[in-house]
Amino acid sequence: MPDLYKTVSPEFKNTRDVIYLLGETNNELGGGEYLKMLTRTAKQGGLAIGNNPAPEQVRYGASVPIVNINKNLKTYQKLEELIEKEILSSTLSITSGGLGIALAKASVGGMLGCNVSLGKNGSKASVFSTNVKLFSESQGRILVSVPPRKIKAFEKIVKNISCAKLGTVSRNGRFIIRNENHAKGRAGKKIVETTVKKLFDAYHKFSNSMK
Fold this sequence. Notes:
By secondary structure, this protein is α+β, with helices and mostly antiparallel strands. Helices cover 35% and strands 18% of the residues.
């Protein structure tokens, strides 16, 4: 990074900024945080005994994320260009917990809400379950936010890579995720509706318990 002052931090910063997902989401829950939660739940319920895994473990544990070096490199190069041209307000690599957790981190970091729709979620297919869209840990994905005045320049740069428009940053402190956008501009069904304050409290309750 030639210019340290062009560093872009991960938290949402401005209301009305538009949120995008760079990179493809695939059905890759295997080995991830969501699978771990299902495994714990199954064991507590007596569903997983010995070498006989619970149905949820079989269903969600088979698809471990696969790194596509060529696609990821193109995404990273575009990200580098966006940062160099100072187009982004925020940028956050999607890792453990998937997109749902990344959105929560960006909101809590800036104490700003968001209103997003999963839609195709940067995927070639729209048939993935809500769980996959929220918690898949597919590699090479980045959550970014862009000021409205820079949208045209942003979309010109990313036109040849996988990119999905998710929604906007909001000032009301609400954290809303919808399953998909319906036809004719109708809003999709809400699958997550909470506040940034509740997410903040949950995050710090957990982090404090680990001290």
